[in-house]
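Exercise 7b. Backbone tokens:
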């Protein structure tokens, strides 16, 4: 076999192995992508199948936070820069940073009636976050 043919075969096998590795990485990452739905995306694409765990995100609409009669479940509306909204219900203890007007990502499922029930809530903050414990130190300085 000539040297040129051997190089061609070597290059072809290397290209094939590289393409196979890229395809495996793509499929592995696609299944584990950790993205969330915004109200606008849900309005465009529709809600995912009920019972499938997904994440929804946006801002907690000011004035939308209410509690059930027993006080265990909170219900709030998630908004984004569109006229669409998502109503979320959550039973549990909310994070310290959770409040109206703040960013939120809720993990849970859509029910058959279209409502969203969260099992976990993550509060988002901006780059100027400072723990409550340090705010008095800033005011004194």
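Sequence design result:
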């Amino acid at each position: 076999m000539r040297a040129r043919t051997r190089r061609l075969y070597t290059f072809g096998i290397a290209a094939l192995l590289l393409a196979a590795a890229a395809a495996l990485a793509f499929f592995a990452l696609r299944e584990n992508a950790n993205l969330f739905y915004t109200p606008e995306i849900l309005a465009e694409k529709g809600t995912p199948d009920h019972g499938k765990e997904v994440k929804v995100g946006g801002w907690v609409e000011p004035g939308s936070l209410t509690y059930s009669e027993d006080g265990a479940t909170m219900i709030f509306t998630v908004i984004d820069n569109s006229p669409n909204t998502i109503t979320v219900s959550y039973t549990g203890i909310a994070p310290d940073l959770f409040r109206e007007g703040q960013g939120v990502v809720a993990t849970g499922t859509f029910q058959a009636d279209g409502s969203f029930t969260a099992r976990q809530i993550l509060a988002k903050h901006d780059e100027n976050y400072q723990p409550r414990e340090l705010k008095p130190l800033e005011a004194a300085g």
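Instructor comment: Helices lie at 3-31, 39-45, 135-140. Residues 1-33 form one domain.
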